[in-house]
Each structure stands twice: as C-alpha cells, then as structure tokens.
# Entry
Amino acid sequence: MNLILLGPPGAGKGTQAQEIAKKRGLVQLSTGEMLRSAAKAGTKDGLEAEALMAKGELVPDDVVVKIISERIEQPDCAGGFILDGFPRTLMQAAALDRMLAEKGNKLDAVIELKADFNRLVERIVGRYACAKCGQGYHDRFKRPKVRGVCDVCGSTEFSRRSDDNAETVTTRMMAYYRDTSPLIGYYFCKQTLRSVDGMASIGEVATSIDNVIAGLSR
Ligand code: ADP
Ligand code: AMP
# Structure
C-alpha cells in the first residue's frame, strides 16, 4: 500500500506516518528528514537546502524529486510506503506520477489532514523528538510516559528543529497555501483524496486514518 499524508506544517503528518509505518510495516518517507540528514552530512544539495529550510522556503523541485526517486528505488519500499512532506508542488506530484507509472505502481490514497491554521503555531513550536530514534513528541500534546525518557528507545536526549520557531511559521504556512494546497484539487480529481479532521486528538486522527485504510480494501 502506498499512501500520501497531505497537510500544512504541524498538521500531524509525521506523527501519524510514524505510527502507520510501525503498525502496517510500511516505510515512512519524509523529505524533510532526508533533507535534514543531507544537510548534516554536508552534501552539496543538503547545504543548499539548509539555507532555504532555515527561512521556511521550499527546496527546489529537482533536488527533492531526485532524493525521493532514489529512495523509492530501494528494495524496502517495494512493500509499500507513506509519503510525509512530499509532494509539495504540482510539479512534484506530476514527477511522482511518472515515477510510480514507470514501476507499474500506484497510489492507494492521499489522506488530507484538515487543519486549523490558527492552532498550528502551538503544535510547531512545542514539537521535539528523541535525538536517538527520532520518535516525535510535543511539550503539551504528546509527552513521554516517563518524563525525560524516550518511550521507544529509552534515550534521555531530545532535540528541536531549528526551523520550528514562530518566525518561520508564517513563511512555511504561505508556502503550503500557495504551492501545496493545489494538490488537494489535483488528487480530488484523481479520486484518490480522502480527508480526515487533523485537529482531533492524536488517537482520534489515527482511528480516522485506520477507517480510511479499511475502506480502501473494500
Ligand atoms: P507535521 O509532520 O505535519 O509537520 P507533526 O506530526 O510533526 O506535524 O506534528 C507537529 C507537533 O504536533 C508534534 O509535536 C506532534 O507531537 C503534535 N501533534 C501531532 N498531531 C497532533 C494532534 N492530533 N493533536 C495534538 N498535537 C499533535
Ligand atoms: P518538513 O520536515 O516536512 O516540515 O519540511 C521541512 C522543510 O524541508 C520545509 O520547510 C522545506 O524547506 C523542506 N522540504 C521538505 N520537503 C520538501 C518538498 N517536498 N519540497 C520542497 N521542500 C521541502
């Protein structure tokens, strides 16, 4: 099964993708994570991306399409994947269609997490993750069961993204509404769009996504 989670920054794509991947044995493909790793590794693309990411702007389509097309070729993706943060432009969506068609593969659903813009800033500025395994948390909405200890790997080190600050949020939201939100119409017309309420609790959103997935096999 191949899925896209679509929604503005902070809508819950990464949180839900992490859970679905675990539960269903799918690979989570986050272009944001891939770009942050490339920046950390100091590759040419990574360094170019880093400056744009710090400003909250989108990285050029050709860079992201190259990264994702190489990753999708890896054998672990053959069993299915969840795209989280890709595609973000109509050009990226068209490139994805071509990539999948070349492999005789297809998308099963594009799940839109409908979000209330006014409540996303709080989600974004409170976000952090385990520095060792990447498990996502939130200061208010998703705390570790034992304070300061990762639920998944037991690490006591956590990190915050440098772009998760109030200054970049507006730019990131504008990028979403200008460049990414047209994808809602694109996938609606392809009859692959399913929408869920992304402002419900994490557990409720997960249940809504489960219901969408259950409906696909019917
Ligand atoms: P995205 O990947 O769409 O940018 P995340 O999944 O990283 O968003 O979620 C942003 C922050 O909000 C994280 O800290 C996460 O723990 C929290 N979060 C995600 N979903 C919900 C939800 N349904 N209710 C409250 N907080 C949430
Ligand atoms: P994310 O982790 O999805 O919040 O993405 C963090 C940042 O990475 C974004 O603000 C963009 O600068 C960049 N980025 C991630 N995915 C893409 C993409 N598909 N297209 C362009 N830029 C991206």
In short: The two ends are 14 Å apart (CA to CA). DSSP finds nine helices and eight strands in the chain.
